[in-house]
Each structure stands twice: as structure tokens, then as C-alpha cells.
Amino acid sequence: MVIDFDIVVAADRKRGIGKEGRLPWHLPGDLKYFRKLTSTTKTGSYQNAVIMGRKTWESIPLKHRPLNDRLNVVLTKDADYKVPNGVLKVASLDDALELLQDFPVETCFVIGGGQIYDLCLRDYRLRKVYLTEVDAEFDCDTFLPDYERAFEEIFQSQPHNENGLSYKFRILRKKKEGDPDAS
Ligand SMILES: NC(=O)c1ccc[n+]([C@@H]2O[C@H](COP(=O)([O-])OP(=O)(O)OC[C@H]3O[C@@H](n4cnc5c(N)ncnc54)[C@H](OP(=O)(O)O)[C@@H]3O)[C@@H](O)[C@H]2O)c1
Fold it and tell me: What tens digit of pLDDT does each residue of 31-79 get?
């Protein structure tokens, strides 16, 4: 069985997502949205999985990791890298999606960072992008690639305002094959 996945990401107007290993902004409303989206399941006995690169894993404060109520999956090429009990360590996205077939997982969410988004935005198993679009420009060192042309919007929220910033929740999905823009 092929497991597909969704991406969850917050980006600024220039597709900036990070600076010096951290998020460039502090938006509690977005963190709340992230937690609810990635934790909620329709089936009580199932969990969602959150797949992330090793650097994103390390960017989560120790007291908050692993992210609770979700199966945490860390991508690293380092065979000796240690993760706590209950956290899965994998050497590739294929390994992650294959391994997750053995777990009662409802939805797989890829949650960053830049290297992993880059890989996943080009992957045929990607279904949707949950994008928090921050209407500002930050001095970022990590960016999403230019991907939106191959996607269509299926939802856009009203703007939210917090800490002097305006942001919207958008949901994008891959355009169907055969669409001239779907590449
Ligand atoms: N705005 C957002 O929504 C958001 C979300 C998440 C993260 N971020 C930000 O993004 C930044 C981190 O992103 P990043 O690009 O530097 O790092 P990253 O993607 O989180 O992690 C990179 C690491 O993942 C592993 N990796 C990469 N490709 C792999 C592959 N094909 N197979 C197996 N392992 C692989 C490698 O680990 P090893 O070196 O151990 O081999 C690599 O060093 C931070 O600033 C963070 O705050 C932003």
C-alpha cells in the first residue's frame, strides 16, 4: 500500500521559513493550529505521524519533544544518531513511509524543515500543503522552493492578526496530471 502525506509549513512572502535553526516569528495562533491539525484523528485508536528532518527535531525545545499525541519520525543519515524511546529514526523518506505502514497511523504530516520540504514537494505521494502564509518579509536563511505553480488552492482563511503580523491559513493541493501547469 502506498502511504501518502501532507505538508504543514509556515512561510513568509518570500517563502522564508527559518533563521539560524529557528522559526523567524512567534505566532501562538499558528502553533495552536499546528498542534490541532497534526494531533486530531477521526479514529480514537489511531495517531498521526509527524515526519521531520534531524535539524527540525533539534529545533524543538527538549521539554516539548517528542511532540505529544503524535508518532514522531526523524530523518537522518547518521546511523549513530540517538532518539528517545518511541521516536522512529529513518534514513530516507521511503523508509519512513514504509515503516509507518506497520503502525496505526491515520495521516502522515511532513513538518520540515527546508531540506525535507524540498524533497517532499517533488514527491508523487504528496497530497496537500497546509500553508500558513505570513504577510511580511523576514531575514531568513531557509526557504521553500518555488512550488506553487503545480498546486491549486482549496481553502483560504480570513487574515489573523497577532504580534503585529497578519497571516492566513491556506490549503493547497497538487494539480491533476494533464494540467499544463502541473509539473
Ligand atoms: N516555517 C516552518 O513551518 C518550519 C517548519 C520546520 C522547520 N523550520 C525551520 O527550518 C530550519 C531547519 O531546516 P533545515 O533545512 O536546515 O533542516 P531539516 O530539513 O530540518 O533537517 C536536515 C537534516 O535532515 C536529514 N536529511 C535531509 N535529507 C535527508 C534524506 N533525504 N534522508 C535522510 N535524512 C535526511 C539530515 O540529517 P543528518 O545531518 O543528521 O544526516 C539533514 O542534515 C530551521 O530554521 C527551522 O526552524 C521551519
Answer: 999 999 999 999 889 999 999 999 999 999 999 999 999 999 999 999 9
9 lines ligand 1 (CB under 6 A): yes
- One-letter-per-residue 3-state SS of the chain: CCCCEEEEEEECCCCEEEECCECCCCCHHHHHHHHHHHHCCCCCCCEEEEEEEHHHHHHCCHHHCCCCCEEEEEECCCCCCCCCCCCEEECCHHHHHHHHCCCCEEEEEECCCHHHHHHHHCCCCEEEEEEEEECCCCCCCEECCCCHHHEEEEEECCCEEECCEEEEEEEEEECCCCCCCCC
66 lines ligand 1 (CB under 6 A): no
| CATH fold of 5-174 | Dihydrofolate Reductase, subunit A (3.40.430)
- The yes-or-no verdict on residue 2 having pLDDT over 70 is no
- Pocket probe for ligand 1: among 60, 74, 77, the residue whose CB has the most ligand atoms within 8 Å is 77
Q: What are the pLDDT digits (tens) for 85-131?
A: 999 999 999 999 999 999 999 999 999 999 999 999 999 999 999 99
* Nearest atom (ligand 1) to Cα of 117: 19
